[in-house]
From TrEMBL, chains A, B:
Belongs to the histidinol dehydrogenase family. The keyword Cytoplasm does not apply. CDD domains: Histidinol_dh. It comes from the Bacteria. This is Histidinol dehydrogenase. It comes from Alteromonas ponticola. HAMAP family: HisD (MF_01024). PANTHER family: HISTIDINE BIOSYNTHESIS TRIFUNCTIONAL PROTEIN, HISTIDINOL DEHYDROGENASE HDH. Its EC number is 1.1.1.23. Binds 1 zinc ion per subunit. The active site is at E325 (proton acceptor), H326 (proton acceptor). Catalyzes the sequential NAD-dependent oxidations of L-histidinol to L-histidinaldehyde and then to L-histidine. Keywords: Amino-acid biosynthesis, Histidine biosynthesis, Metal-binding, NAD, Oxidoreductase, Zinc.
Amino acid sequence: MITWNTLTSAQQKDALTRPVMALAGSVKSKVSEIINAVEQRGDEAVLELTRQFDCNTLKTLPLSSRQLTELASQVNDVTRQAIEAAYANIKRFHIAQQQPAVVVETRPGVICEQHSDAIESVGLYIPGGSAPLPSTVLMLGVPAQVAGCKTRILCTPPNVNGTIAPEIAYAASLCGIQKVFLCGGAQAIAAMALGTQTITKVDKIYGPGNRFVTEAKQQVSQRNDGAAIDMPAGPSEVLVIADASANAQFVAADLLSQAEHGEDSQAILVCSSKEVIEQTQRAVESQLQVLSRQSTASVAMKNARYILTQSVDESVLVSNQYAPEHLIVQTEDARALLPAIKNAGSVFLGAWSPESAGDYASGTNHVLPTYGFARTYSSLGLSDFVRRYTVQEITQQGLQEIGQTICVLAEAEGLDAHKRAVSIRLQALEEASK
Amino acid sequence: MITWNTLTSAQQKDALTRPVMALAGSVKSKVSEIINAVEQRGDEAVLELTRQFDCNTLKTLPLSSRQLTELASQVNDVTRQAIEAAYANIKRFHIAQQQPAVVVETRPGVICEQHSDAIESVGLYIPGGSAPLPSTVLMLGVPAQVAGCKTRILCTPPNVNGTIAPEIAYAASLCGIQKVFLCGGAQAIAAMALGTQTITKVDKIYGPGNRFVTEAKQQVSQRNDGAAIDMPAGPSEVLVIADASANAQFVAADLLSQAEHGEDSQAILVCSSKEVIEQTQRAVESQLQVLSRQSTASVAMKNARYILTQSVDESVLVSNQYAPEHLIVQTEDARALLPAIKNAGSVFLGAWSPESAGDYASGTNHVLPTYGFARTYSSLGLSDFVRRYTVQEITQQGLQEIGQTICVLAEAEGLDAHKRAVSIRLQALEEASK
């Protein structure tokens, strides 16, 4: 337990410092080799790597739409209903994010507008691993569908049998994904960014992944012929603000639900009650015993931090400094703190709003900025699937209204032709009026 | 003149290919050296480089607020009024972009919200060069001010006398810039991204610059301890769609106003009338003669392309494929084409809407995605100065409503602790109701 106000500001900074994300140079060069291979040999390289890493008998990358339908139909009723319920809530929340066009007449006859339009083609990446991630399919697939992105493809590594989980297939079909390709890792990212014979080149790539995927996304986003990406990635993290009114069992359960994600997950409790911290520590110990991912969670919890503050307000300042991906607030009047809260990716207010709700089913997106990126990056939303562009339409009167301003500024900046593009028009108007 | 429909699709692609932005390896390594120097030696390194490149007698990096006020007061009345008029229009348009919070009750008792909040500290970069760029100060400073970014600093290289243009100072003071630092190039970007003794470390950096600045922005944005950046950069470009009704003199003036930006500027006319193309070519020749930046513009115009199409609709398809930074539409009913127009950063409708209007004074932002990035990146706007985050507040009833969905999905994904964070709460509710 760390008592915040006994620390120097350097020690405070230390207490909130995330472990360095040191990427082995070998990962960078391996990824760059894979990107080169995919660029040069296309499908052949992707298939080769997929056989090597995922399924050595795989014949072809695309999952046919018959296979997709067949797989989707295998989902059991209970899971199907849960996927549908989550899909409906996520869709509702992302539809609500649609923005009307902005239209302003800044001066008489000078109409300025801001519109948004779907990014034409998007590629969604769903990692493989020990269990399928249908929730991530929904978090990426729903906003792409609501935005109206014309081309929506999905890459996910096949299992050893050369297929994917029915849950993934069902979620993908709900989101109207047009093509599913059986590949993962850096090779999948390279294929979507550069295109191959069968995999469509897309404009932007979304989704989580291991360090090879993350590095591949960084590398393709730096290429002019590559693809944009959703946001930089780091280990998942939660910060819980609690006070004396908090239920320590709930707080412990929330910290552990973060910790089970991975050994590098960060869980931080910032609490103005010493008793609640101690109760939480005991509750963590006892709840850990029954978890299926106990070994992962206990490694992560070794790095958990318990910070004692003097007040809830001080707790908020600690959180603002850390800039957590997830912020859970279990205090007496959680909503009252909202105006003071800065730099959090997603905020969960009150005792009945566990992070799992946002991870799966409430409607908010679970793709969030980690590693302090919440200071500048946004929670994934509809606007990440659209491009905003401006439009202006100026009438003759409008140009007369602002023409002088343009000419003076263009002259101040030494841009003669800019000035002439206006003066030639003003002259034409003058001549016409004679 | 290129006749579009006589080209194969490979030739069409070729005709719209931008020159490769080949960055000499020496730029990359030079920039990385500068960033290291600033990281290690702070102000000392920045001052050293500024003396070397900009003003060898410079004593200190910050411009005092007295100096700023003094400089600002030197602007002549005509220019002051023009800066004020542009400021007012830009402000109006960016205020209109403010978004209300999104609040949706996705299920009874499940409240999902999306809010936005200003990015706390921003750094604006204004390049030096032969003439001052007050318009760019406004384009970056106004949205930062409207968003309410708490810390707003500006870096710009000093002239040989160790000062800056009064126009820059006046625009900066209108935008409420708190600190101006006399430095430019990669060293200014490094200083804002990493912080020095006198230059504040900022969360996000905005603004145009030469290849050293651009490369420095890329490099700091890839560092976990660096800063986010506005968007990738490339040479400026315009595409004009015209038909037989277009005024060739206006079209020529618009192409030239792009061409005077730099020798690598791209100007493309896509026109369904052979006559208008020929008239425009002649008008370009004659207008070039009187331009002050004739030598720059004529180099750029050597790479200009004149593409003849069979219809306005075909012209729109060409533009969509190119994804221009600026798109000027001089056709009979320009607005009617808007729904079909994709992938343009900013669209100028009709004969009386020259690009210069948006560059300076109409209200729209002139920081726009170039080099085809308009496919995924947006025109700079208020939302680039805020972060969106989500909030959820779930009632007891709400959790009972979606609890089962969360538990089923968490189980499908093998995330036991996620499930327990809900079930432990549902159990508590059940016990309480007994």
